[in-house]
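Dear H.,

Thanks for agreeing to be a second pair of eyes. The structure we're designing against is below in token form, covering all 116 positions.
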């Protein structure tokens, strides 16, 4: 299972864009972090998604040190099946959707950042 989260509707926007390119993404969910939410609220939403899964869960967040990432790290401390990644971008998710490994998706994400 993959959970996408960022400030505002960032995770939802990434998923929608990904589905325009690669089709419907099963087993990928989003958590929106809005101004009226706390870290505890995010953790609660993560746990709702995680409890519905019997497999490992990767949480991808927009920036390190942000509330979504901090909530993900607190969630990871209590659940061994959770992995947390930051720097969420469309290139990273496209790599995963095309069957690349997590490590390759991280390389692809970094390589997509360039001045043209």
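And this is the sequence the design step returned. I haven't edited it by hand at all.
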């Amino acid at each position: 299972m993959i959970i996408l989260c960022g400030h505002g509707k960032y995770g939802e926007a990434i998923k929608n864009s990904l589905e325009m390119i690669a089709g419907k993404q099963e087993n990928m969910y989003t958590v929106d972090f809005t101004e009226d939410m706390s870290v505890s609220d995010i953790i609660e939403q993560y746990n709702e998604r995680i409890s519905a899964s019997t497999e490992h869960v990767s949480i991808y967040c927009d920036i390190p040190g942000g509330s979504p990432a901090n909530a993900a790290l607190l969630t990871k401390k209590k659940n061994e099946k959770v992995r947390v990644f930051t720097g969420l971008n469309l290139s990273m998710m496209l790599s995963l959707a095309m069957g690349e490994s997590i490590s390759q998706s991280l390389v692809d994400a970094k390589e997509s950042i360039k001045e043209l």
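Two observations from my side: The two ends are 34 Å apart (CA to CA). The longest strand covers residues 2-7.

Warmly,
E.
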